[in-house]
Amino acid sequence: xxxxxxxxxxxxxxxxxxxxxxxxxxxxxxxxxxxxxxxxxxxxxxxxxxxxxxxxxxxxxxxxxxxxxxxxxxxxxxxxxxxxxxxxxxxxxxxxxxxxxxxxxxxxxxxxxxxxxxxxxxxxxxxxxxxxxxxxxxxxxxxxxxxxxxxxxxxxxxxxxxxxxxxxxxxxxxxxxxxxxxxxxxxxxxxxxxxxxxxxxxxxxxxxxxxxxxxxxxxxxxxxxxxxxxxxxxxxxxxxxxxxxxxxxxxxxxxxxxxxxxxxxxxxxxxxxxxxxxxxxxxxxxxxxxxxxxxxxxxxxxxxxxxxxxxxxxxxxxxx
Length: 320
Known about the structure:
2 domains; Cathepsin D, subunit A, domain 1
C-alpha cells in the first residue's frame, strides 16, 4: 500500500452537497444493518502502525468489481480518485454518462467535476441517488492484472455528506458502523455533548486542562489522539519529544513531533486515556486551526474501545 492513497491531511477544501441516504430505522442494535470496516496498517517513519486508516468495502453502480473507500469524517465531499476511476469509466460508459457538468466541487484550490445519481453500496447497505465528486489526477492507476482480478481496489473517500440528517454509529470494538433514522434503545441513556458543525465536519467539546475547547473530530487521522499548535501542545505536556513522524500530506512529507500529555483530557465526564499530543510547525497547519476556530484535531485513537454516536439531526456526540 502506498501512503499517498490515503488522506493524511488535516483539511480538505471541498464544497458541501446534500446526498440521499436510504437506511432503515431500528430500535435495537441487534437488528441494525451494520456496515463492516477494516483497519489499514502500514509502516510510518520505520514504525509499524496497525490502525492507520479505516476502509469500507464499496460497490459502485452494481459494477462487478470489488472496491474500498476510506472513511474520513475530516473530509467534506465523498469522492472517487480520478486516476483510479478512469480505468473503469472507459469500460462502463453508463457510469461515465453520469458526470454532471453543472455541478462542481473544489479541492486543493482546483475545480473538479461531479457525478450525479450514483448508487453506492457500503457493505450491504444501499445509498442511492447520491452525488459523488471526481478528484481529478489523484490516486494510482491500477495495474492491468488487478483490473481483471477479484482484488479489491482502493478508489475514493467516504465523507460526512453521506450521513447528514441521519445518526451515524461507529462501533470501534467490532469494526462496524451503522446509519439510522432514530437512535436504538441501548444508546438512549448515554451522555451526549452538543457539537458545532461546518461543511459537514464536526467540532466536539473536550475539557483540556480544565477548559472546554472545540476540537475537530476526524476519522482520517487515526494515528493521533490529538494534533494542535506547538504552543497548545506545550501547555498540556512535558517539553521532551517522545515521538516524531514524517507524514505524507498531499504528496509532501512533513514532520510531526509528539509530547506526552500531563494535563487531564475529558469528554463530558469520561476521562480520556493518557496520550501523546502532536504538532507540526510547517506552514498552513496553525492557520487552519485559527480559521476553523478550533484548539486542534482528534481522531479515532481516543475511542478504540468505544461506540461513538454522531447524531447529525440533533448535532450531538455520544460515547458508550
